[in-house]
Amino acid sequence: xxxxxxxxxxxxxxxxxxxxxxxxxxxxxxxxxxxxxxxxxxxxxxxxxxxxxxxxxxxxxxxxxxxxxxxxxxxxxxxxxxxxxxxxxxxxxxxxxxxxxxxxxxxxxxxxxxxxxxxxxxxxxxxxxxxxxxxxxxxxxxxxxxxxxxxxxxxxxxxxxxxxxxxxxxxxxxxxxxxxxxxxxxxxxxxxxxxxxxxxxxxxxxxxxxxxxxxxxxxxxxxxxxxxxxxxxxxxxxxxxxxxxxxxxx
Length: 250
Hints:
alpha+beta; Endonuclease, Chain A; 8 strands
């Protein structure tokens, strides 16, 4: 691959980068030109400022390409063959590496070994990992009077219980279940004094049905219909923006 100035390159990446500077883009010669006299040599458009940005867009490289050290821009090689990007010799080396990786045995098969996974689990327990985690849900979360809430619905339920002197505590115990051939643990949201559990659920999935079937205790699932009167009470007393009652957010 050769530039019109006579300089040769191994691949298109080097040629693209060289051509920009060979034509005066980004060089001292280019910077010393007066703004009023500068025209794009490709489209002949008169540019008052941001000449490099115009050149990148004009060449289809994308903004910010002149600041990158590797190649002229992200995505410039889309639709090209390896030989066109890296040259024939480098392309052969890459294809050999790909064929070796695809034909070689799985290097990470040991990770599926039950003994190895068991040892990892024991190490995690010693370090305090596992169990219910904060920010497990997608809702707006935070602390309210010492209780962690994973969503605005949980916050409304906690407010309702506190206002009506209903005792409860955050559940920290996990219960085993199996899903898609894997052993997992299910952590209901809350525990009541009578030993029953409460789960606040916006929607019911197939995995949750397996959790409920394998759960050994009494479980009350609060969906949208069950939560409606609780939400109405919370909004009527504390307003629509009751999530602002969060003390801290993490």
